[in-house]
Specification:
alpha/beta, Chemotaxis Receptor Methyltransferase Cher, domain 1, Rossmann fold, 2 domains, 7-stranded mixed β-sheet, 10 helices, about 20% strand, globular
């Protein structure tokens, strides 16, 4: 029954999105232009969500349709970057799904504690909220000084924001609530200072973080890690790209390394899942076997 469901999902990705008036030929033409212009390949992203984001971008920018969008990407300086930024940035929060972070703290970090270096890859890190979440968790467990973290995304603008660690102050109430529910050892406000309506997080948290551009759809693995965190990214890929990316993660993890994905995601139907067993099915934390 599960296989049948995902076959239907895959078929829907390949069909016409009549609601938005976008067909496969328009989509393929647009994605080919983006790939030629910026070297980013969106062709294996899940079409339904990609359609919605592109349609929203067309509406916000008051474009007449795909032809005008393609023309501007080809000819207007910076327009391609603006397009990529709008369709790839995902809204997230710190310590999202607190039980996930409890699982990392109570069941994953203890097994890594005696390593001389704890290597972590945040794949698809967006604007860095989960990178700072991990850094705070490591600091509270007195492990930050031995951590080596790489945070990657295809969106250079998002990576710039992640490096700066400046977020809207109004969002910190939600972050503080998440932090409280995982049983944080202090107050989240101890890790940032207020500057106007923004919260500037302590740069000491990311002294051991390297931010770099990496495209999960096309770039190979680039190192070995004890933990890979890639949350709420798989849902934007079609099944073949999910399989490919899981293979990259498997190659990138040391034996006994850990993988964490989003609460609404699953890799159980993928062939590469045979290399992992769950630490927590509910929190979507796995160990490489």
């Amino acid at each position: 029954m599960k296989q049948s469901f995902f076959k239907k999902e895959l078929q829907s990705m390949m069909n016409l999105d009549s609601e938005n008036g976008i067909d496969n030929s328009e989509m393929k033409n647009l994605l080919a232009v983006v790939k030629e212009k910026k070297g980013i390949d969106f062709s294996d992203y899940a079409y339904p969500s990609l359609h919605r984001r592109i349609s929203r971008f067309i509406e916000i920018n008051r474009l007449s349709g795909f032809s005008e969008l393609i023309s501007k990407i080809k000819n207007v300086e910076g327009f391609a970057d603006s397009f990529i930024h709008e369709i790839t940035v995902n809204v997230t929060e710190m310590f999202r799904d607190p039980s996930f972070w409890v699982t990392l703290r109570d069941h994953v970090l203890p097994s890594l504690r005696n390593k001389p270096v704890i290597s972590i890859w945040h794949a698809g890190c967006s604007m860095g909220e989960e990178v700072y979440s991990m850094a705070i968790l490591l600091k509270e467990e007195k492990l930050l000084s031995k951590a080596k973290i790489v945070a990657t995304d295809i969106n250079m603008e998002a990576l710039k924001k992640a490096r700066n660690g400046i977020y809207l102050l109004k969002n910190q109430e939600l972050n503080e609530n998440n932090y409280f529910h995982l049983g944080g050892k202090g107050k989240l406000s101890e890790h940032y200072k207020i500057e106007g309506n923004m919260a500037q997080y302590d740069q000491e948290l990311i002294k051991r973080v390297e931010f770099k551009r990496h495209d999960l759809s096309s770039d190979p693995y680039f190192g070995m890690f004890d933990m890979v965190i890639c949350r709420n990214v798989f849902i934007y890929f079609n099944l073949s790209l999910q399989e490919k990316v899981l293979g990259v993660f498997s190659q990138s993890l040391n034996p006994g390394g850990f993988l964490g994905i989003g609460s609404k995601e699953s890799v159980s139907w993928l062939k590469g899942a045979r290399y992992f067993k769950p630490i927590s099915i509910e929190d979507k934390v796995f160990v490489k076997v």
